[in-house]
Amino acid sequence: MNQTPIIDTEVAVIGSGIAGLSAAMFSCNRDISAAVIGGPGATGFYSGYIDLMGVFPGKEPQVKSDPWQAIGDLYSKFPEHPLNLIDSPDIKSSLQEFLDFLQSQNLQYTGFEGSNLSALTPLGTGKPTYRVPETMWQGIRARQEKTSCLFLDIQGLKDFDAAGLVSAMQDSWPGIRSDCIQFPGLAEGREAYPPLLAQNLENQTRRRELARVIAANLQGEKAVGLPAILGIYRPGLIKREMEEIIGATIFEVPTMPSSVPGIRLKEKFSNYFDQKDNIQGFMQQRVFECTKQGNKDFLLQIGGTKPEKKLRAKSVILASGRYLAQGLQASRSKIREPLFDLPVTQPDNREDWHKSDLFDPEGHRANLAGIQTDSAFRPLDTHGNPIYRGLYAVGSILANADWMRFKCGGGLCISSAYRAVENMK
Ligand SMILES: Cc1cc2nc3c(=O)[nH]c(=O)nc-3n(C[C@H](O)[C@H](O)[C@H](O)COP(=O)(O)OP(=O)(O)OC[C@H]3O[C@@H](n4cnc5c(N)ncnc54)[C@H](O)[C@@H]3O)c2cc1C
Hints:
- With 425 residues, the protein is α/β, with parallel strands linked by helices.
- It folds into 2 domains: 6-107 and 265-424, FAD/NAD(P)-binding domain (3-Layer(bba) Sandwich); 123-255, Rossmann fold (3-Layer(aba) Sandwich).
- It is built from 11 helices and 19 strands.
- Strand 1, helix 1 (18-29) and strand 2 form a beta-alpha-beta unit.
């Protein structure tokens, strides 16, 4: 009889977004064997900034320049926010380990020592964030110092609007202008996508051609703002090589999805996992069922379009995201967690899910729905007790952390994953 062999691991991480990838990396660093299963999730949308705590939402949202001070004040204003479950030193350690990992993989991030910075959005507004890819850093400096700057559109690229950026910023940043160039090798009239252009710039000849096109368009500007397309694997190197030819600083500005900085993160983790004996990656696969074997291990059925393999794990970290990734599912009357049917904190009535104004500064209660945990990130039952020994929930699936309003997405994913893994040691 053809019996599917069971793959054993200490921890199964369900989800390969920022939370799941971080959890697998933290496990590997602590000699805990891990299997990570999941599809793209929100990473393809991720603008690349690591938010930590940027805004206290409310009728008059308060922008926070010091995320650590904000985290210190969080409990008094928003006692249910899950970042309250983690001590600040642990949050700091988690971010440091995450950034050290990226640095070891040649993906540098930067920022101010203890404060947030105002990063450029694709719309030309500023957003408080904690760390940015080094390829975006000079744009923040240029905006602060009002350096003369050329923003470039690329023919056929709909996910970026340099002219719109310039018109949104030129009152506060004189000396900026926009232009539109043809990407070398791309047929005129052809639609362009950020990942395709980034892949092209991995080729040295192509990036030299692009640098020469940019240099020919400069009118004495000291800096050039480009959509985030400076390669997938070696953005720092590509930036430096092109700067030498152009003779001016270049920097990236996030595009609309698909977002290359998110793809870069995912690629770095995937390549790292491929080299490690104690991590098994099941990317582009999903968990169809996960059951607890009495008081012992978890048994997971995983595969592409149908269950193909079985995985046995002592612990499970549920990092399955929100509505977009199907970690939470909303029917007409209820928000559900589909894998374990965990209790989901949510409003009693559907009418209370959303405010009538889409842009209500206080946000929508559906975005606060999610899984409630204890300080070890174990999901709780309705009596406040951990549901399963060995089950953790981390990242954006957590209740009471509307990342869109608080600007806390990446920081919460990384630090909750860290706490869950530390708890397993
Ligand atoms: C447009 C946009 C821009 C953003 N920009 C930023 C930013 O600049 N900075 C920032 O800090 N945050 C940002 N965020 C927020 C940030 O993206 C999220 O907070 C974060 O990506 C959530 O990560 P996650 O790992 O919790 O979930 P996700 O990234 O959604 O990942 C969930 C994972 O679970 C998997 N999954 C779900 N169900 C199953 C199953 N049954 N079996 C296996 N796998 C499963 C999915 O395939 C996916 O891999 C942005 C979000 C959006 C939408």
